[in-house]
């Protein structure tokens, strides 16, 4: 079997409902069934466009912090509800 390394910072991984998995360049449109896994390297708020909010009404997201820490602010759909702050950190080394 030939193993081909995938640069997760330049590619997205698509996990299809039927079990097929493949990597595509990050600039390609994902418009396919299943799920998409994308990794980002962020050192500052500018790296993750912290100056504006994103809305994902048709999707769910999993956010994982591999190194350092990150704060996420979740705004609920109904006006007047308070946003929720989520703080993610890495697990300490064993």
UniProtKB/TrEMBL annotation:
> Lineage from the top down?
Bacteria, Bacillati, Actinomycetota, Actinomycetes, Streptosporangiales
Q: Which domain of life is it from?
A: Bacteria
Record-given protein name: Cupin domain-containing protein
Q: What species is given as this protein's source?
A: Streptosporangium subroseum
